[in-house]
Amino acid sequence: MGIEIPSGEVTLMLQRLGVEKDGWGELIPVIYSELRAIAAGCLRYENSTSTLQPTALVHEAYLRLRGQRSMEWQDRHHFFGVAAHLMRMIVVDHARRSRVRDRGDGVPPRELAGDLHFYDALDQAMERLAAFDQRQARVVELRFFGGLNVEETALVLNVSPKTVKREWAVARAWLHGELKHPDERHRLGTS
Questions:
Q1: 112 CB-near residues (< 8 Å, 6+ apart)
Q2: What angle do CA 28, 32, 37 make, to 5 degrees?
Q3: pTM exceeding the 0.85 threshold for the entire prediction
């Protein structure tokens, strides 16, 4: 993802948001490219005909982030972790709404069916994973949906990169078993 802005500067801006609610105007230009990279990561398996694009996903996430009441941002990693989670929820909600909207005869159009099924199946598997191992679910969310690398994920979760690698491998293997179709398992990747 490549973090360009010194983390101390962004952390200070985020902490001021707790006191000064109008600080978003100063913060967004500084973090926009990182939010857009997370959005692109969340949408990398979306069908090219999808109506949800990275810019729209960033804007929707921004509105939800701004609406967080009395959120005390610990640091930039905490912020981007929350942003990745919100974007995951937005993508899954969008896929579900699209499925309902596009069902003329009860079946989604062929070009959308695979994407919608994948995100829905992955979200259900993620919920099951979170029920018994919250950290593994967060690792998947940050790496797969958020596009964070091992080191960035370790910073967000306050664990070692070695722990992230282990949790990522175990969670990915578990999710591969949970996803029903080979093409879904392939989409989850191996890196």
A1: 47, 49, 50, 98, 99, 102
A2: 155
A3: no
